[in-house]
Amino acid sequence: MSEVYVMVTICSRKNMPRFVDCYKDYNVEAANISLGRGTASSDVLDLLGLEDDEKGIHMSLVTENTWKNVKKGLQSKLRIDVPGTGIAFIVSLSSIGGKRELGFLIDGQEYKKGDESTLKDTKHELIVAIANYGYNTQVMRAAEEGGATGGTVLHGKGVGMKRAEQFLGVSLVSEKEVILIVAKSSQKNAIMRAIMDKAGVDSKAGTIVFSLPVTSTAGLRILEDLQDEEVDDENNN
Predict the structure, then answer these.
(1) Which residues contact 211 (CB under 8 A, 6 or more apart)?
(2) All structural domains of the chain
(3) Are 10 and 57 in contact (CB under 8 A)?
(4) What is the pLDDT of residues 4-50, one digit of tens each?
(5) What span, in angstroms and rounded, lies between the C-alpha atoms of 186 and 27?
(6) Is 33 helix (H, G, I), strand (E, B) or coil?
(7) Dihedral (CA of 134, 140, 141, 146) sign
(8) Helices 16-24 & 64-76 angle (0-180, nearest 10)
(9) What's 106's DSSP letter?
(10) 57: closest CA among 187, 155, 202?
(11) Residue 126 in contact with residue 180, Cβ under 8 Å?
């Protein structure tokens, strides 16, 4: 994937509408918003000028040129450099499940298609599946058929979902569930394909799936050793 990133924004919940409005000016309309809570002490919150620690997490796809313009806009329009306003950052997108889905997520942004990107020596990837609310089980069953061993589910709300029918030919609800799956890079394509085939945008789950490169992991080795042993046993039988 060439020059496409996942942009993550974290700010106070009450300020999130300002960021959403700002992003619309740069054709960043399709996104997912989840709620979280900061861990700063009350003294730190007072120092930063924050009234509470309830956070909004905004996640969307942007091209390289869009990010450059968005970054300038955040500094000039929202004064993001002022403590307490929020933070935004980007992560390279490794792959996305489907051309239609990509078109929907970056509609209106300047984009030049390139090869799928990978980081050198990347052995794992984070698969992000955004599905209609109530379908995380269907998504995980599909992922497990593709080789996944488990995942984590977050609740969120979709932004710009009314445009989905125009681009995808289907309607998507606003209430969303975000399923996070860490998998071996060698298993990524099979897992994403299984999700697309059994819980994709043409199903009731309406899932959009993409992946991000993972630099390093801890806590997966024992599980993966067991998987490798099972594969070896199957090959020997």
Answers:
(1) 93, 94, 95, 96, 125, 126, 127, 128, 188, 192
(2) 4-39+49-220 (3.30.70.120)
(3) yes
(4) 999 999 998 889 999 999 999 999 999 999 988 765 555 655 554 55
(5) 34
(6) strand
(7) positive
(8) 130
(9) T
(10) 155
(11) yes
Q: Give residue 14's identity as a one-letter amino acid code.
A: K
Give 151's Cβ-side CA count (13 Å radius).
Answer: 27
Contacts 24+ apart (CB under 8 A), 50-55: 50/12, 50/84, 51/12, 52/12, 52/13, 54/12, 54/13, 55/10, 55/11, 55/12, 55/13
Backbone angles phi, psi at 185, to 5 degrees: -60, -35
Report the candidate in 11, 19, 129, 7 with the shortest Cα–Cα distance to residue 63.
7
Q: 65-75: b or e for each residue (b if 16 or more CB lie within 10 Å)?
A: ebbebbbeebe
Report the greatest alpha carbon distance in the chain: 65
pTM of the model: 0.84
Q: Inter-axis angle of helices 136-145 and 185-199, to 10 degrees? A: 130
pLDDT of residue 220: 64
Q: What is the predicted pLDDT for the residue at 215? A: 84
Looking at per-residue pLDDT, the higher value among 21 and 122 belongs to: 21
- pLDDT tens column, 51-108: 556 789 999 999 999 999 999 999 999 999 887 788 999 999 999 999 899 999 998 8
Which residues is 63 bridged to in the sheet? 4
